[in-house]
């Protein structure tokens, strides 16, 4: 069945663009106290003293906590934690930007000024913030996915190879840069902790706060009506959220903390850079015989984050021998975290540039090389794919892009002053599925309310869920509203991992199915029509009728390998004199199962592909390793694409229904968009200029001098 | 809070008088740079003198010169019909700067006085920076060097001047008219900026309390053509890595009165007098200019992280010359 989006498509678009949508930082509370952390200026050492005299002289300061007078808290052990160690609980400093004092004051301005006036002295210890200088100290850690895999005999496969590629690739440290900085308001009434939070995971915040505060989860309520972008930065629980709640309880007054842009560089995580090495061996006719992919990323001294740069390589191409190995290096920086798109986002940069290099070594069209190595099933674990329309993506993408008109040699497509280059890259992202629950409630006016503890982070949850319920109930989606962002509502997982439509959508489908079932039972006669729902309630003397539904991945579905797939085609132009790379065309074709909301899905992918342009050509959170700090903690020093950088961009979806991923037939859409874009652009730059750049972002200086 | 006085004045003498007794005061025009610097703690004035009501918004052309009031907004100047017609280079350089929103707010005088984008200057104030806190040291010279200047620098500061408009104005031999307590003077914009030798915190020769009130641009020969070329990391709303303003007079098939100013490479818009002389009389088809272009920034002292700016500057000038001369 085709679900048609309603006109005026995004249901909360109007309140957002008119400023009426209420974000956590917008929520007012009587008697509120503002919190601001004073942070460490050094990346490693011990705080020997914190002088707050000058800070306390600032009018309006209510309290200042340092490691000497802060309430003692347990370690944050809950899985939702972004960092386990809460600042101020120790005198040890392990990164620049770590909180060393928390100022609580009557106004935000007073809190910020007092925080500036906090004077700390340190016992400075040697710091290492550059993981590339400490690669010999790389270690393996435990994580949700293994850090190494091996299938087949790599050495034998490479021995058999007639053509080889063995190269190293780099991606950069990057930050999420959500336009709404993280914000939290905690209100303690002596019994319940109410937390208005800009979070991607309300139930995660609730669980983590329960652990630290020693409260039962039922006495904590987390509300997030709207989130102005998260991209992973708000997917975990970070110290500012914990301390807002702790301070609210201690002071008996509401406490609000809103991060500044510069604090957003260190108060929550970032996407770590990766150093990768890819070895490919292939026969003369382009069939892979051996693949090895290594990836290393920095992590924190006290916390683990592995950017699984080789995940994609484990499943992308058919090959008898695939080895992957990941490591981390501990450096004096805050903990990295998930960032759209984690793992495959950086990881596929290495694999897909290497595949392009292999194509050139073989004198073979890069798309044809990928077709020849299409995986019929997951090459590492042998499982069948739940559904995979990658070949259709190749066909659609190539056709829409006009790939057949490409001339293979580099620098062969000059147009006036410009070298023109066409490149492509594959996209792949693992499918994350989390259990969820929802409630649907019909009222006498024939309207339905969906309730679920999920979040709206800009992805369109309020628009997509009614489409799912409308299909089951047979009523127009505009008669269905959604309440979300509240842990008083039925539990749902975090809005991350491209999991919401799968998990929450399936729960809504089940709740709607239950509601329809109960209505049928209540109806006087069989054959109840949707327009008669209200009458049924009246007939039975009911004001409303509710039904709950839940969904969790079935055990059997675990027998399948599940991925979103895509093929990305890029055109770049490089002025032969000025050497500035600019993207002029992007076409992406995607296999994501059934598309529930075509307009919303297209918007999601469009944003993701634009982010891929940023990864390819701009984004890098530069760190000064002598100072141990980021150089430009703002949006003018760290660039992201603006409208003028966005080219003619097309998004296409394969016509597909995944019978195993979810009852909706859908897989995830949210994060596949940025994957594969950067390598497609890097490959297009090579095609344009003949200059092979093995790192992103690619900038003008990379292209000066040669060619 | 960092309290400060705010005062809005409508007469120049009043503004200058207030400023004379407020040594740590600042004039406030568009505020697009000053306010961000205040929020970051880089600037901490105790007195803001809002000069937006001063009568300096004119854009006038007579037989000798174009006169632009210092409080005219960037967008007013770029959009003015007489500027588009007579000085398209100015419109080009302004439209290459910032965003439409910033151009609507920012004043022409303020644009010339904007502070460097050196990331260390704009970093948290604990980070050493001689331009922000003279004597504290320069973090940039041994740090992230990518955006720094390559010429006109000193051991104490390598920051580059960020303005696009100033580059075009210097190529056009513009002057600024300054008013201070009891004095008025006119200075060539080329002499307005200073290198960071003894006082890296002083970008210009402006005396304390002196106001830029007007920018004066000489009339151009009708055969004059120009082009502003800007290379940056993204297509809009970012500062120049390198830019070039080129002005020349077409004389048959030759170029005359060549004037070239570079942006992004020096603490000020950087004229290239030797290159200008070498190009004098060369063909508009740009044959035979390669040798002259090779001498651009030959005296530069780039750092490892910004070495690319030298060859990029040559390429940018080459492209700007082509586009100005109609040879591209």
Protein described:
The complex is a heterodimer of chains A (707) and B (328). Chain A has 707 residues and is α+β, with helices and mostly antiparallel strands. Chain A folds into three domains: 31-125 and 182-229 and 234-257, Aldehyde Oxidoreductase, domain 3 (Alpha-Beta Complex); 274-432 and 558-703, Aldehyde oxidase/xanthine dehydrogenase, molybdopterin binding domain (Aldehyde Oxidoreductase, domain 4), CATH 3.30.365.10; 434-552, 2-Layer Sandwich (Aldehyde Oxidoreductase, domain 4), CATH 3.30.365.10. In chain A, the strands form six sheets. Chain A has a seven-stranded mixed β-sheet with strand order 3-5-1-12-9-10-11, sandwiched between helices. Chain A has a five-stranded mixed β-sheet with strand order 7-15-14-13-8, sandwiched between helices. Chain A has a five-stranded mixed β-sheet with strand order 16-17-22-23-26, with helices on both faces. The longest helix of chain A is centred in the C-terminal third of the chain and has 23 residues, at 500-522. Chain A is globular, with a radius of gyration of 26 Å. Chain A starts with 12 loop residues before the first helix and ends with a helix. With 328 residues, chain B is of the alpha+beta class. Among the domains of chain B are: 5-50, Uridine Diphospho-n-acetylenolpyruvylglucosamine Reductase, domain 2, CATH 3.30.43.10; 224-325, CO dehydrogenase flavoprotein, C-terminal domain (Enolase-like, domain 1). Chain B is built from twelve helices and twelve strands. In chain B, the strands form three sheets. Chain B has a five-stranded antiparallel β-sheet. Chain B has a four-stranded antiparallel β-sheet with strand order 9-10-11-12. In chain B, strands 1-3-2 form a three-stranded parallel β-sheet, covered by helices on one side. The model of chain B has no long low-confidence stretch (mean pLDDT 96). Chain A binds chain B through residues 41, 58-60, 107, 109-110, 113, 116, 262, 417, 575, 577-580, 582, 617-618, 622, 624, 626-627, 629, 631-634, 636-637, 639, 641-645, 699-701, 704-705, and chain B through 1-2, 40-41, 99, 117, 119-120, 122-124, 126-127, 139, 142-144, 146, 229, 231-239, 241, 308, 311-312, 315-316, 318-319, 328.
